[in-house]
Amino acid sequence: MRKTQITIDVELDENHIPENITWNAQDGGVEKEETKATMISVWDDKAMEALRIDLWTKEMPVDQMKMFIHQILISLGSTYQRATGEEDVAQWMEQMAEEFAIKSAIKM
């Protein structure tokens, strides 16, 4: 069996707030790439729930966080469509993402 590794390193300040986040992905050729935010979800099949880690640095601008969340919402629709084949629900998710963009003032 082949293994690969994706890692995320987080430097915290004295109050345990992320100051720097870097990530590595062996197979993707990514090494110590800086980022201002990350959201990780894993599925716990015993508890039947998603477990999440949401981190962002204190330098992450609010307008970029809004764009980050908007793009995640769009990608969730694509992921849902690929996983289920339910195009109608995926389109509804995309519409919801566009509503979010308008309500959060990303788009007019």
From TrEMBL:
Among Pfam families, the record links this protein to: GldC-like (PF19937)
Q: Which domain of life is it from?
A: Bacteria
Q: What InterPro entries does the database record attribute to this sequence?
A: Motility-assoc_prot_GldC (IPR019854)
Q: NCBIfam families recorded for this chain?
A: GldC
Protein name, entry field: Gliding motility-associated protein GldC
**Organism expressing this protein natively:** Chryseobacterium defluvii
